[in-house]
Design brief:
It is a single chain. The protein has 7 helices and 4 strands; from the N terminus they run E-H-H-E-H-H-E-H-H-E-H. By secondary structure, it is of the alpha+beta class. Strands 2-3-1-4 form a 4-stranded antiparallel sheet. The two termini are 19 Å apart. 36% of the residues are buried. The structure holds guanosine-5'-diphosphate. The site of guanosine-5'-diphosphate has 10 residues, from helix 4.
């Protein structure tokens, strides 16, 4: 069990001004920020990040959404980070997310769902490495 996960605050949430409230909720839930950047993905970068979904019918929609505004990428630390963060953000589809979760509070749809959270320790490491050099994390 790793103690790190990776997150992005997605363009729907940054565009609507939810970044501060979402970061506040993450930190109050006990996560420590080990790396963070505010950036905007290119189409190629968004496609690479979601490469696993390339064959899915929603792939281009997902890429277009992910480049529609800035994102905040971060590496977070907490005991049981991956599972606890998935609990904090709620189900992929906000209509099915538990009350009080970040997606229930801030997401509009299954596509535009406010935040990303790694689904495994292995992917947390891969996704963190996608955004951050050794100099940009501690
Ligand atoms: P996650 O691990 O909860 O983010 O969910 P997935 O790994 O299944 O999907 C990755 C991302 O693709 C989701 O967070 C959504 O932004 C997007 N996505 C998933 N399903 C759909 C869909 O049916 N339509 C659209 N437009 N986007 C989707």
């Amino acid at each position: 069990m790793s103690n790190r996960t990776f997150t992005m605050i997605k363009p729907d949430a940054t565009n609507k001004g939810y970044t501060g409230a979402i970061l506040d909720q993450i930190i109050k839930a006990g996560f420590t920020v080990k790396a963070m950047k505010w950036t905007k993905l290119t189409e190629e970068q968004a496609g690479l990040f979601y490469d696993i979904h390339r064959a899915r019918p929603f792939f281009q929609e997902l890429v277009d959404f992910m480049i529609s505004g800035p994102i905040v990428a971060a590496i977070l630390e907490k005991e049981n980070a991956v599972a606890d963060f998935r609990t904090l953000i709620g189900a992929t589809n906000p209509a099915q997310a538990e009350e009080g979760t970040i997606r229930k509070l801030y997401a509009a749809s299954i596509g535009e769902n406010a935040v990303h959270g790694s689904d495994s320790d292995e992917n947390a490491a891969i996704e963190g490495d996608f955004f951050f050099s050794k100099l940009e994390r501690f």
